[in-house]
Design the sequence.
């Protein structure tokens, strides 16, 4: 089977759940090859191998932490040139979609965003999307180049499948454009102990009916009792309540 590149979303080697979902989907269309970038990249191999990655292309270059987005595009482009994959899968986050779009432009390929399912097709991977506020379901494929596909979190189960997970160093050449936006400081986000909003199976959300920021502790208490994430409507966010 052809290789399928999967960009790994991790924090200092701790792989996040949406990446494991991507590996499940990648196995439907080929052999998953994970691309792990940044500090702790090599430490991801164990869990990635347990979930189907036949190979892990790793690079811990400092550019991934010092500059935004573009160094990761450089790395994915290098991986595409090295592997000649059947597809490239990325998590549908704000950063993930920007990386995918830039990569597709560079390699002259089509892109599908916010897919909710993937299956093998005679002419390439077929992606399912929910469009127009989930009023319609579409099935589509990329007809030019290596398909670049972003997948929404919680779109597939996490299914362990033992594979080699062999680590190989990924050689990346960073262009001048990769240093256009530099990270000058970081402020760690305070942990609430709740699931990530994008990954949560249950979300308790508050809107206009909460009637003020002082009442959001009620939403938080209910969320905590259910092991859920806390969400807020656009109106509540714009009002500064949450």
Sequence:
């Amino acid at each position: 089977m052809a290789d399928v590149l999967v960009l790994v979303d991790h924090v200092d080697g701790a792989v996040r759940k949406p990446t494991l979902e991507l590996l499940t989907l990648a196995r439907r269309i080929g052999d998953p090859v994970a691309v792990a970038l940044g500090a702790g990249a090599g430490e991801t191999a164990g869990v990635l191998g347990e979930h189907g990655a036949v190979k892990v292309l790793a690079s811990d270059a400092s550019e991934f932490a010092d500059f935004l987005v573009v160094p990761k595009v450089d790395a994915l482009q290098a991986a595409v040139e090295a592997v000649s994959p059947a597809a490239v899968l990325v998590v549908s986050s704000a950063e993930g979609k920007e990386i995918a779009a830039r990569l597709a432009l560079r390699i002259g390929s089509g892109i599908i965003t916010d897919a909710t399912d993937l299956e093998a097709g005679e002419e390439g991977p077929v992606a399912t999307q929910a469009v127009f506020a989930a009023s319609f379901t579409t099935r589509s494929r990329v007809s030019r180049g290596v398909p670049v596909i972003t997948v929404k979190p919680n779109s597939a189960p996490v299914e362990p499948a033992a594979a080699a997970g062999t680590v190989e160093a990924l050689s990346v050449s960073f262009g001048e454009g990769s240093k256009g936006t530099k990270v000058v400081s970081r402020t760690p986000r305070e942990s609430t102990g709740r699931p990530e909003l994008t990954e949560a199976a249950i979300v308790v959300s508050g809107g206009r009916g909460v009637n003020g920021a002082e009442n959001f502790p009620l939403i938080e208490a209910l969320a905590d009792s259910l092991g859920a994430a806390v969400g807020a409507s656009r109106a509540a966010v714009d009002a500064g309540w949450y």
Remarks:
- Residues 70-83 form the longest helix (14 residues).
- Residues 3-179 form a domain with the Rossmann fold fold (CATH 3.40.50.620).
- The mean pLDDT is 95.
